[in-house]
Amino acid sequence: MAPYLLLFGKPISTYSLCILLGGVLAWLWFHRSLRTRPENPGTVEQAFFWGILGAFLGSKLLFLLTCLPQLIRDLPLLQSDPAIFAARYLYGGFVFYGGLLGALGVVWLFCRHRRLSFSGLCAVLVPAVPLLHACGRVGCFFAGCCYGIPAPEGWPGITFHRSFLAPNQVPLVPVQLMEAAGVFLLFLLLACLARKGWQGSALLLLYLTAYAPLRFALEFLRGDAYRGHWGILSTSQLIALGTLAVSLPLLVRAVRRQTKPTPTPSQNTTPN
User: Which of 109, 74, 104, 105 is nearest to 88 (CA)?
Assistant: First the structure.
């Protein structure tokens, strides 16, 4: 684990560096994709930055909602020890699904305000999301957050020795790296389909449909308990089930439209 790297003698958060790297890669990918599309580059760049803001606010808001009872109990810390309150609730703690929904909502509002095609922007923005996500999960691994359960016998395990978050000296399932690999493969799939001319709405539905079962399954391998649970399911699992129920039938319909052959005019057989 390497939560910090020393640059010029100063500790820099590895998680922040991974997020920055993911943002740069996502930016480069969709900026390159714009060369073959009619969207205005400046408009897409604005949507990108608004989406980043929506992702930050949405991920933080959902995190605060998952720990709302404890947050209410800790409100007196705002006066007695604001530094501890900030460390618990402001500096860390983000839920990916909240960020995803926040980004989509903000970009949709941006399109409504600017009278732009939401599907058109999704064609260049959606594949960039899992690319950024993959880098973020690598950052989680280095930081020790979002850690896995103790590795069952015969499973590969990662042992932390200096973690402030994950259990130390215990082999843990590297669930962060497993999710990073899964969403990176999803990025490759979406990028390939985008180049083949898939509409942005179909790409978005495919992304939502494919990520939901991946996240649902990996949540069972998560060992951290501060992401919120409702019975035997976590908050993200409930969102994944709801997302899959909505996106799957819409995806099937979108794929049928996407792959439906374009009708060609029949020859005129009417006699003169």
Answer: 74
Give the per-residue pLDDT at 272: 42
Residue-level pLDDT at 91: 59
Closest of 103, 142, 232, 129 to residue 187, by C-alpha: 129
**Among residues 130, 141, 102, which one has the least CA distance to residue 215?**
130
Place of tokens 């057989």: 269
pLDDT attached to residue 90: 67
Which regions in the chain score pLDDT beneath 70? Answer: 1-4, 6, 37-41, 87-93, 226-228, 258-272
Please tell me the predicted confidence (pLDDT) of residue 40.
67
Q: Are the beta carbons of 11 and 4 closer than 8 angstroms?
A: yes
- In whole angstroms, what is the distance from residue 144 CA to residue 148 CA? 10
* Phi and psi based region of residue 236 (left: phi greater than 0; alpha: psi -120 to 50; beta: remaining): alpha
Identify any residues that bridge with 150 across adjacent strands, giving them in sequence order: 172
